[in-house]
């Protein structure tokens, strides 16, 4: 009996009371799913039926390695690479670099450059998720030229700032972690579902997060509380490669060969069929334009979701598998692929 009480005390006092663990699995979201049944398809478009104008890129720039992540902030384009470098471009000219230290690979006994899988910046702070000698994906805070490593249990896929003190992480296990970088502890950890994490994106106000997963279900999370406020299923038939959000609109690029725009207020969605895997895509800041990859050549389609038959453009000149699409404004876009090349596009107004 004495040993039993001792074990109970260890369990109670050994738990970290700074963390709040939430579970939001597919199985216990029956209420949210019943709401989702109201979503209706307003129209489906076959991309090959559109009459689009082909345009050439306005600029091509080259990163120092294969592009892994891109962020645009304060008129600067930050490009994270697999060559241990975050390249900083202004007006498409390389202005500076953040260099992540190389490390000694214990398996092959050789020096390796770090692969930077995720990067974000806010004011004078940057969050970098990269490989090092201890882990394939370790999180670092970069500030004033110094790197500070901290610990997150799990494999991090993507990291984004919520504000100056909080970062949100998407884990391969489909857990979402809100982390206080000043106090160095988890505010909450939400288990979204049993499906593997694919992508996430914050809205403009950084209060909602859309999460795309292996199953194709989309989850909308309240960033400050960690609560899942809506699930959107029975729309995507397969994995979501990219998810984006603008106001009440959700965009998804999917393995089922479709790009979709979902209106959470009207409970409707639009479907754009490509007959190929849609690896990349995004929605514009105003929520009225989208871009997504359409074929085995890695070409993109840009269109106005309010009048897709009238304003659509083919963005050709890709040479490998597309990975990132980034709106700067409604008519300026950067796209990257699985190599060192980045294209800037200027869409006719």
Description:
The chain has 349 residues and is mostly beta strands. It has two helices and 33 strands. It has helices at residues 2-14, 30-36; strands at residues 21-23, 40-46, 53-55, 59-62, 67-73, 76-81, 85-90, 93-99, 103-105, 110-112, 116-122, 125-130, 138-143, 146-149, 156-161, 166-171, 175-180, 185-191, 197-202, 208-213, 218-222, 228-232, 240-246, 249-254, 258-263, 268-273, 281-283, 289-293, 300-304, 312-315, 322-329, 332-337, 341-346. The strands form eight sheets. Strands 1-18-17-16-15 form a five-stranded mixed sheet, with no helix packed on it. The chain has a five-stranded mixed sheet with strand order 2-26-25-24-23, with no helix packed on it. Strands 3-30-29-28-27 form a five-stranded mixed sheet, with no helix packed on it. A hairpin with a 2-residue loop joins β31 (322-329) and β32. The longest helix has 13 residues, at 2-14. It is globular and about 55 Å long. The termini are far apart.
